[in-house]
Amino acid sequence: MPIFFASDFHLGADARCSSRERERQVVRWLDHCVREGADAIYLVGDLFEFWFEWEEVVPRGFVRFLGKLAEITDAGTPIHVFTGNHDLWMRDYLPRETGVTLHQQPVVHQLQGKKLLIGHGDGLGPGDYGYKRMKKVMTAPWAQWLYARLHPNLAMRLALFFSNKSRESQPSETEFYGPDREWLVAYCERRIAQDPTLDYCIFGHRHLPIDYRLSNGRSRYLNLGEWLNYSTYLRLEDGVATLLRWDDSISVPLYEGSAPGLVINRES
Question: How many Å is the Cα radius of gyration of the chain?
């Protein structure tokens, strides 16, 4: 039975299509996973452009997506949700209301005879020290308490404003910079040095679909890409991981040089 992985839906932000239409695409993809007999579904961070849970309030919208999560878990298929840098303030709402399992740190899972390291990817590896300092502040209980004192209307507008500014300041997400400049590659190399039995290192955050064979010759770093432009995901079946692109109703393999998407160093 296949296991599916996706990340970086960024619901709440318009891009190639509107957030509402992308939400519908994600729901159709989730239906596809169920029809394919999914053993589990992993949603690896930045599902929302911004998320915060006040005591009695949650962000408006996303009812199709949240309802689909509840429908799938109610039917017995487990869904694992990871917090990302855009929705790191998830707490107990999704687990309580939709039945998902929430992870706030990378995890190692044994699946289909393979050992997988799974996480969103923000703040990992060398560099990005400004974000790492900011994340320490944002994940502090006192910072969340202070933010919760803001009226939700103001809090959401502020968060979405700074989220858009942050996206505009990011480097190109269409180019692989090489193992020396890709922080998640460096992080994966360090992890396989500590644990050579890791088969797959699966992350999001980078916004570029990547399939990269690591220096030990057997482990692979797989980046799930995003749904703002690429609509990519990963299927694990019989221990074989394959990056695919969701074309609204069908799955399309990604090959080196294809557009959109990028697969590199898979066989070398």
Answer: 18
